[in-house]
């Protein structure tokens, strides 16, 4: 042993041992990585595109294992772009943020809200641009928001918040009731989906040309579920459909009880649209908290 | 058990320079022995191989050839380290530790614990006269104090052999004399002392035997008196001699065939002696 | 020097103490010496810098809802904590060995019956204890800040909801629950543990480098470089190994780097925990074992270099 050690340079022995250890640990670590990623504890490497867009310091930080720090500071930067209405810069920032932390639902919801609601609203009132350009950009931002939403859904398939935010764009900005119905339909059954999405799915299906019959059946099924579903809007939507589809009198639902207490949708203070966008009940909150 | 404290046989130490193309022989086929209970001095100029030899004996370096043994144990054997107390040249200890903490630290490294360790720390601090500075951090110690705490540290596990590397380097004459006195007392207590120095006068005062090392080789070795005695000369120092007496001495010498007076004059005290006398007088006056 | 004292002896000379093959006592002595050294070098002052960062972040007026703001404070403070932990592990470890060598303290230590593995292990344990203490203190600072913000948000929310008079106690409780979910939760302790594991591997790697490095500065720079590479090589391999148009040389290089340099990116699972993902304790346990493996291997390699190193 001793003569061997004396002949072979120590550095070579060290490197060989280090490599042997590397060969043993490498498959173990790869397995661990896969399971950590599956458990959502570890984020897979960002897409190559994200690196190209990143500034030097952000890149170094990310390489140094400071992903969430970089992402948080970029979020602050993005807010800066929001206050100066620099929508393209904001989109750039979120490209990186969502690449760094694709599992953080709030990033996706925020960027969809910023581009889909704020940027489009800004285009509606921006006086410095000609009308044609404003309209073009309005659509561009809305579609960019939809693109983000689709990528977000791909990353977090179980997220209802992203879908609800997406539905909001279709409803408020693109006035596409069929798309709204489709998105709400996809949201039903997700683990943290609020209870209202089933009703909303029905409401917007009712407004989607060609799906009235389907919507009537769906809403009636909800109605049959009992008192807790018989909200004024539901009743109104069903009555509209009864009119539209010419449902005979005896099969129509009775008028809503005028003495029934009106459940006013409430919106807690301090909430941005990205967080909870639509009226919710205590039951909805319970579902959100799981 | 071996009665040899240190046994160095045919020791050679070669260092490779740079990219291992050039070599320097620091110690060349060196052999010597230090008997248990004696004070042995290895003297030589800087770069003569003293420190290298010492490091081999301490097990800090491995010999390229030959061997070094301490009380019969190979110097690389960790058990040999229990028998050795070492005071390096200009010792540096952890500046953040106090004197007492330093001794405790080294005591614990030697496996000492509890009351035994505490008693030992107190004894050693008293021995080196640092009781007053026991709780001061070493960062605030003077060079002489550091040397003394270093000596105490070397004695902490009560070793049989004490190795001192330039024990008085950078220490003032009084401190130097105190260290010399302590070395002599160590010998009286039965410790073996192996020291390296280039201060010949100091070695002369304390060593039983010396070895003179030059360019990695042992040039002379033996008992001090034997090495420095000039056999064919005799020194005579007179006090209160009258000029007549001196004239008669001259006449007597001239009458003897083959004899001559080599030198004559007033003997001088050494500067070291003078300095110590003054210092001691001032200390007496203070009391 | 005391002229009246004779040289004290604690035991008759000649009866040398036996030297055990491995002494945890000596490791503990060197470790506690290292802790004292690092503490008295005032290294804990960096915690003040950390506290400043956390206080600054905690007082940001962030553009978000209370729950989101808490989540951001949490992410920044834990990210900074992680950064401080590994950076501290590198710098502290890199200072120890070369310094002992430069100061020749190493001579006096190794001339006592101390095995070199005990010395290395003692130093490493000392650094790990200090890193551990620092992390606990940093966690404490974070907990105070997040806890304070959390209770502030909660009371503000309760007040706003109560004063509006439109919410039932049950609804208020639900809303408070939403905030609490982003506040101080026991799982965050596991995230701190993950940072500790990462810092431990970093310290092990640094001590290995410092056994053959010539200076602290070299060790620090190389350690940081390897740390960055250790983070990037997973990304690098996913880019280069899965595309066919890369040359053999590039692919080989990536593989070699992956084999030689620790995978630090794995330890980023702490970020997942901070983001609120559920902790899988079995995986955390396995990461602990991987860390132990790294430490054992780095110590053995350090010993291989250090065992017959001449001073």
Question: What's the quick description here?
Answer:
The complex is a heterotrimer of chains A (290), B (287) and C (311). Chain B has 287 residues and is α/β, with parallel strands linked by helices.
What do these coordinates show?
The complex is a heterotrimer of chains A (290), B (287) and C (311). Chain A has 14 helices and no strands. Chain A is mainly α. Chain A has two domains: 120 residues, Serine Threonine Protein Phosphatase 5, Tetratricopeptide repeat (Alpha Horseshoe); 84 residues, no CATH class. In chain A, helix 4 packs antiparallel against helix 5, helix 7 packs parallel to helix 9 and helix 8 runs antiparallel to helix 9. The model of chain B has no long low-confidence stretch (mean pLDDT 85). Chain C has one domain. Chain C has eleven helices and no strands. The longest helix of chain C is centred in the middle third of the chain and has 49 residues. Chain C is elongated and about 80 Å long. Chains A and C meet through helix 2, helix 5 and helix 14 of A and helix 3, helix 5, helix 6, helix 8 and helix 9 of C.
Task: Considering the chains and any ligands shown, give keywords for the structure.
heterotrimer; A: Serine Threonine Protein Phosphatase 5, Tetratricopeptide repeat; 14 helices; flat; C: 311 residues; mainly alpha
Q: What is the topology?
A:
The complex is a heterotrimer of chains A (290), B (287) and C (311).
Chain A: H1 2-7, H2 10-38, H3 48-53, H4 56-63, H5 67-83, H6 87-100, H7 105-125, H8 131-155, H9 160-172, H10 177-187, H11 196-206, H12 212-224, H13 232-245, H14 282-289
Helix pairs in contact in A: 4-5, 5-6, 6-7, 7-8, 7-9, 8-9, 9-10, 10-11, 11-12, 12-13
Chain B: E1 4-17, E2 22-35, E3 39-43, H1 50-58, E4 65-70, E5 73-74, H2 78-82, E6 84-87, H3 99-109, H4 114-127, H5 143-154, E7 161-165, H6 173-188, E8 192-197, H7 200-206, E9 209-214, E10 217-223, H8 224-228, H9 243-255, H10 271-286
Parallel strand pairs in B: 3-8, 3-9, 6-7, 7-8
Antiparallel strand pairs in B: 1-2, 1-4, 4-5, 9-10
Helix pairs in contact in B: 3-4
Chain C: H1 24-40, H2 46-58, H3 66-102, H4 105-110, H5 116-164, H6 169-182, H7 188-212, H8 216-240, H9 248-260, H10 269-274, H11 281-306
Helix pairs in contact in C: 1-5, 2-3, 2-5, 3-5, 3-6, 3-7, 3-8, 5-6, 5-7, 5-11, 7-8, 7-11, 8-9
């Amino acid at each position: 042993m001793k003569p061997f050690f004396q002949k072979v340079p120590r550095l070579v022995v060290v490197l060989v041992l280090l490599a042997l250890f590397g060969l043993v640990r490498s498959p173990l670590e790869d397995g661990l990585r896969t399971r950590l990623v599956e458990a959502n504890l570890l984020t897979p490497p960002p897409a190559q595109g994200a690196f190209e867009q990143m500034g030097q310091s952000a890149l170094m930080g990310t390489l140094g294992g400071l992903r969430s720090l970089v992402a948080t500071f970029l979020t602050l930067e993005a807010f800066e772009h929001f206050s100066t209405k620099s929508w393209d810069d904001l989109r750039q920032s979120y490209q990186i943020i969502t690449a760094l932390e694709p599992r953080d639902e709030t990033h996706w919801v925020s960027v969809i809200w910023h581009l889909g609601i704020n940027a489009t609203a800004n285009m509606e009132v921006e006086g410095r641009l000609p009308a044609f350009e404003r309209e073009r950009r309005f659509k561009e931002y809305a579609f960019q928001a939809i693109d983000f939403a689709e990528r977000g859904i791909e990353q977090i398939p179980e997220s209802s918040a992203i879908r609800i935010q997406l539905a909001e764009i279709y409803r408020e900005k693109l006035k596409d009731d069929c798309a709204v119905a489709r998105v709400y339909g996809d949201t039903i059954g997700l683990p943290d989906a609020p209870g209202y999405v089933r009703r909303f799915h029905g409401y917007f299906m009712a407004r989607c040309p060609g799906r009235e019959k389907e919507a009537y059946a769906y809403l009636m099924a909800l109605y049959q579920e009992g008192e807790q579903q018989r909200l004024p809007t539901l009743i109104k939507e069903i009555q509209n459909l009864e009119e539209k589809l010419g449902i005979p009198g005896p099969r129509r639902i009775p008028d809503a009880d005028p003495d029934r207490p009106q459940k006013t949708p409430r919106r807690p203070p301090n909430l941005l649209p990205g967080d909870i966008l639509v009226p919710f009940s205590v039951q909805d909150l319970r579902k959100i908290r799981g | 058990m071996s009665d040899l404290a240190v046994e160095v046989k045919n020791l050679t130490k070669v260092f490779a320079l740079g990219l291992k193309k050039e070599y320097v022989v620091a110690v060349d086929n060196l052999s010597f022995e230090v008997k248990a209970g004696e004070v042995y001095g290895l003297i030589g100029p800087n770069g003569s191989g003293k420190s290298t030899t010492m490091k081999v004996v301490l097990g800090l370096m491995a010999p390229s050839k030959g061997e070094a043994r301490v009380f019969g144990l190979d110097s690389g054997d960790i058990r040999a380290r229990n028998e050795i107390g070492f005071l390096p040249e200009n010792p540096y200890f952890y500046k953040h530790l106090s004197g007492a903490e330093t001794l405790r630290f080294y005591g614990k490294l030697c496996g000492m614990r509890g009351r035994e360790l505490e008693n030992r720390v107190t004894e050693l601090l008293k021995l080196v006269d640092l009781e007053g500075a026991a709780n001061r951090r070493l960062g605030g110690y003077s060079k002489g104090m550091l040397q003394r705490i270093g000596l105490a540290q070397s004695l902490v596990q009560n070793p049989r052999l004490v190795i001192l590397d330039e024990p008085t380097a950078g220490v003032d004459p009084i401190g130097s004399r105190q260290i010399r006195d302590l070395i002599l007392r160590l010998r009286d207590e039965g410790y073996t002392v192996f020291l390296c120095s280039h201060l010949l006068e100091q070695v002369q005062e304390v060593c039983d035997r010396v070895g003179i090392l030059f360019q990695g080789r042992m040039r002379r070795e033996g008992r001090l008196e034997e090495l420095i005695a000039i056999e064919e000369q005799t020194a005579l120092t007179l006090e209160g001699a009258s000029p007549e007496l001196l004239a008669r001495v001259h006449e007597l010498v001239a009458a003897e065939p083959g004899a001559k007076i080599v030198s004559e004059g007033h003997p001088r005290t050494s500067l070291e002696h003078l300095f110590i006398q003054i210092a001691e007088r001032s200390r007496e006056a203070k009391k | 020097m005391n002229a009246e004292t004779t040289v004290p002896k604690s035991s008759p000379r000649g009866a040398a103490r036996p030297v055990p093959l491995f002494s945890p006592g000596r490791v503990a002595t060197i470790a506690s010496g290292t802790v004292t050294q690092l503490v008295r070098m005032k290294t804990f002052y960096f915690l003040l810098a950390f506290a400043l960062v956390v206080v600054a972040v905690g007082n940001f007026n962030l553009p978000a809802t209370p729950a989101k703001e808490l989540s951001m404070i949490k992410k920044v403070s834990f990210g900074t904590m992680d950064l401080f932990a590994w950076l501290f592990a590198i710098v502290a470890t890199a200072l120890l060995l070369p310094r002992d060598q430069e100061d020749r303290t190493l001579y006096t230590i190794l001339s006592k019956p101390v095995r070199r593995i005990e010395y290395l292990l003692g130093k490493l344990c000392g650094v790990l204890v200090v890193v551990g203490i620092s992390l606990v203190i940093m966690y404490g600072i974070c907990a105070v800040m997040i806890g304070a913000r959390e209770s502030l948000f909660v009371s503000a929310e309760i007040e706003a909801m109560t004063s509006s008079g439109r919410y039932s106690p049950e609804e208020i409780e639900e809303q408070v629950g939403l905030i609490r979910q982003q506040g101080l939760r026991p799982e965050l302790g596991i995230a701190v543990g993950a940072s500790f594991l990462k810092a431990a591997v970093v310290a092990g790697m640094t001590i290995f480098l410092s056994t053959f490095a010539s200076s602290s500065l070299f060790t620090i720079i190389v350690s940081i470089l390897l740390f960055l590479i250790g983070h990037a090589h997973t990304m690098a391999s996913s880019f280069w190994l899965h595309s066919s148009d890369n040359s053999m040389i590039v692919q080989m290089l990536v593989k070699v780097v992956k084999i030689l340099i620790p995978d630090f990116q794995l330890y980023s699972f702490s970020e997942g925990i901070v983001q609120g993902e559920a902790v899988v304790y079995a995986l955390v346990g396995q990461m602990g074992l991987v860390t132990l493996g790294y430490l054992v291997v780095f110590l053995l390699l350090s010993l291989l270099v250090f065992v017959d190193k001449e001073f």
